[in-house]
Amino acid sequence: THLDPLTRDFLDLATLIYIVDEIEPRKRSKDYWSRRFDVIAPVKTPRLWTKHEKAFRQMLRTLAGDDYRFSWLRRSNLDPLGKHRKSLPQGFDSVCLFSGGMDSFLGAYQLLLSGERLLLVGHQADGTAASAQTTLAKWLQNRFPQSCMLIQCRVARSLGKNPAHRLPRKQEDTHRPRSLLFIALAVAIANATSAKTIYLPENGLIALNAPLQKSRLGTLSTRTAHPRYLGELTDFLQQSGVFKGDIKNPFIYLSKTD
Predict the structure, then answer these.
(1) Alpha-carbon distance 51 to 53, whole Å?
(2) How many CB atoms lie within 10 A of CB 166?
């Protein structure tokens, strides 16, 4: 599937941030948490990214508690992404992030009940999550035939003995910026299929992730679906033109019990 240059740059940048987050341990920081990254980022249109850099950096600070500084370089044309056995299907209304957990499963179920045609987007972070995504998606497909399809993505280190690019070993496992990668995958699929809305179902209490003690203040608690983060991200995506649709959490005013 072809990705336009701006979408490709956003997906590559989210992947780059996912990688650098893993290789720089937070314990080296003065406060044992916040880090500063100086990132050289090749993009198709440096002027556009420079214009919207402030909003992008603020969004990352809200999400991960880190300070990112960027040098935008003009890149040449990229090789096309590898071909897959199947192409992305067309004719779907929306994209729904699908973790394999209860919230995303119930979110997809309610959207399908309302008549939405959904592309479920999962990330194969580990075998357990990937298996749960497959099992639950199959149940939904049987219940709502022709109305949903699972697309599983995987961003991980190469398992080959001689990878094209060798990365430093992983040293940090807090993974605060990985929400950006998940949404970037959803944005790429939404843009490629002309879907207008991305859903991120997460019950309101977990979305806020209110700190229960001082050791969980700020980004020490995960902000994967925090309203402030999603608001800043949506503003950035729309103003930069990366994604002109909406990102919605249908469970923001509901608890897990609800």
Answers:
(1) 6
(2) 8
**Alpha carbon distance 118, 95 (integer Å):** 6
Q: How far is CA 238 from its chain centroid?
A: 16
Lowest average pLDDT, out of 16-25, 70-79, 174-183, 214-223, goes to 214-223
pLDDT in tens, 3-58: 899 999 999 999 999 999 999 999 999 999 999 999 999 999 999 999 999 999 99
From edge to edge, which strands make up the β-sheet containing 118-123? 148-153, 118-123, 94-97, 197-199, 246-248
Nearest to 63 by CA among 236, 240, 221: 221
Residue 235 bridge partners (DSSP)? none
For 207, residues 6+ apart whose C-beta sits below 8 A from its C-beta are 224, 225, 226, 227, 249, 251, 252
* More confident: 5 or 210: 5
pLDDT above 80 (res 125): no
Q: Which two tokens stand for residue 221?
A: 């608690």
Name the pTM for this structure.
0.94
Between CA 131 and CA 39 the distance in angstroms is 35
Scanning the structure block, which residue is given the tokens 């219940």? 143
Distances (CA, A) of 101 to 109, 137, 201, 239: 12, 11, 10, 32
What does DSSP say about strands 118-123 and 148-153: parallel, antiparallel, or unpaired? parallel
89 burial (CB, 10 Å; 0-12 / 13-18 / 19+) is exposed
Radius of gyration of the chain (CA): 18
